[in-house]
Amino acid sequence: MDEEAKISELYKYYWDYMIEKNIEGLRSLMSSDYCLYHMTGVKQYADEFLNGLKNGTFNYYSADHDDIVVSVHGDEATMIGKSRVVAAVYGGGKGSWRLQGDFTLRREKGNWKFTSSRASTY
Question: Residue ranges of the DUF4440 domain (predicted)?
Fold first, then answer.
């Protein structure tokens, strides 16, 4: 499996773990300095985001992936994932969104880790 395919698989795991609320699984995909930028502009580091997932601030029910584009540059990579997501966040009702995640990654000890993600719609 080439590096682009490995990273595409990580994106699919990312969403599977979000839906399952698998905190340890998600943490295993993230670098220690991982940072998420929500569509609202809110910036959260891994612990804060994972706590929100655990306590029900963020609830994800499904994710169907429309497109995943990966670009590898040595030990760094970028990925844009487009997925149709059903979620309920910040106390709002369950809804469907076309979410785009712009991710950065870094190879650490031979494994790819997400270092940041920026959410938007498409």
Answer: 7-113
Checking if the pLDDT of 40 tops 90, the result is: no
* DSSP states of the chain: --HHHHHHHHHHHHHHHHHHT-HHHHHHHEEEEEEEE-TTS-EEEHHHHHHHHHTTSEEEEEEEEEEEEEEEETTEEEEEEEEEEEEEETTPPPEEEEEEEEEEEEEETTEEEEEEEEEEE-
Rounded to two decimals, the pTM is: 0.94
Domain enclosing residue 7, as ranges: 3-121
The residues with which 76 forms a beta bridge, in sequence order, are: 73, 106
Of 60, 55, 49, the residue nearest 18 (C-alpha) = 60
Q: In the chain, how many domains are there?
A: 1
pLDDT given at position 8: 98
Q: What pairs with residue 99 in β-bridges? A: 83, 121
CATH number at residue 69: 3.10.450.50
